[in-house]
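Regression test case RT-17, inverse folding.

Input:
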């Protein structure tokens, strides 16, 4: 009986400790700190500090883009840039206790080129 009680106590303690580790909130940055830490940095820094984004989008040039802008868009001799947008939620604070709902990071060739905050 005593051994079972000890096992149960140890199990509950380990279970509570595990829940505490998993429930840790992600860090919230001020606007200036976020820009200073991440502006111009590679994707690996975002993954290290913020983890995987909530959503990702890839920029694609429309098929008939040259007709819309009324000039040829022949890019056969130019290298194509890879554009990607990542979205995080509630990671940037603009006022005590208030965070932007969305933060958009635009990567060009795997480097951060634009940071936008939205509500």
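Golden output:
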């Amino acid at each position: 009986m005593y051994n079972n009680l000890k096992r149960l106590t140890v199990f509950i303690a380990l279970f509570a400790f595990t829940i505490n580790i998993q429930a840790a909130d992600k860090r919230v940055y001020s606007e200036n700190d976020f820009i200073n830490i991440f502006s111009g940095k590679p994707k690996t820094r975002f993954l290290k500090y913020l983890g995987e984004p909530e959503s990702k989008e890839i920029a694609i040039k429309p098929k008939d883009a040259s007709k819309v802008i009324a000039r040829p868009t022949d890019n056969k001799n130019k290298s194509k840039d890879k554009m990607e947008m990542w979205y995080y939620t509630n990671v940037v604070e603009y006022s005590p206790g208030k965070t932007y709902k969305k933060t958009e990071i635009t990567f060009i060739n795997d480097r951060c080129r634009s940071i936008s905050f939205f509500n």
